[in-house]
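The instructor's notes for this session suggest beginning with a concrete chain rather than abstract definitions. Hand out the sequence below and ask the class to guess, before any prediction is shown, which regions might be ordered.
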Amino acid sequence: MITRSLFLIAALSAALTAQRTTQFESRPALALENDKVELLIFPKGGAFASLTLKSDADKLNAMWNPAAGARAAGQPARFGDSTGHFLCVDGFGPTSKEEAAAGMGGHGEAHRLPWEQLSAGRSGNGSQVTFRVTLPIVQEVLTRKVSLLDGESVIAVDSELESLLGFDRPVNWAEHATIGSPFLSPEVTVVDASVGRCQTRPHGSGRPSPRRLADTVNFTYPNAPLKAGGMTNLRAVPAQPNSMDHTGCAFDPARQHVFVTAIRKDKRLVFGYLLRREEYPWLQEWMNYTNPLNLARGIEFGTQPYDLPRRTIVDMGKLFDVATYRWLPAKSKISTRFLMFYSPTPEGFEQVDDVRLDGGKLILVDRKSGKTIELKTNQTL
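After discussion, reveal the predicted structure:
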């Protein structure tokens, strides 16, 4: 009887966290799930396409789904490799004419190529999946492991980039994390981040788009300068969205671990990231508010403030005394780790002033309301 009971307990534990193959928008996907959350990952390009809470009756996806947004707006349902949270390595932004002639596309190679699944299954008290992809143009190998523990809504993502070449070179690395409609909604979705100094993107005359913000002006988040004069609070999507803007913010240099979060206030849900500042010193926000029914907002953390060509970023060198690229030494590897989380919020919890790990918990603090969220986790940074 004891042996049978132990077997049943072990079987139940193994069922708590699992992987399965499925589809998302008619594309193959791998589901990493437990009793709290479900994360869908595309084997081609490695994008995190969907993150939902098991307790949420609406199953509101925190990630940007451009196909669903386009359908809602009555537009052609385009759906490429750039969706949800995808990885820009090695490259973030447009290419030079020489790179384009050599076959390099925008945002690097990683999100365009099929990823080899090295392993998937139970590991300790949770489950993980590991992918690898070789980037032939830049001659690099990317390995990424995604881990989810039983009974937790915190997901760990570990990445390693290896150079196959015999010389040091600067790399461009961005986690193109993006929220979108319907999670992103005017006035009720707010974004908070532990950022210090910020700047509106220098557009010049090359990008004619409907912009609210002034060009190349320093500011302190969330109050940004308007092109028409005055200031605006960037936390929320405006009531009548009709613009597209970019900002680059340096994460707070006084913090070892930094965060960016998005709260859907009326649905009482919070989604976000906790990361190491030394690996991801910059937050770029791409605010695509050109169609009220198909909104997208990038909360993109990486090695540079804007998605600009490699030469431009290397020539920039530093902004606010923070480097705008990262070195990858010859025949060597560099790595990153971040945590991603999704959770219900208590009544009245409407802003995030701090996110920290403490005593087996990931803690979110709203100082204005005096309320906190404590998520049990054995994940570390």
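Then share the key points. The CA atoms of residues 275 and 338 lie 4 Å apart. The two ends are 41 Å apart (CA to CA).
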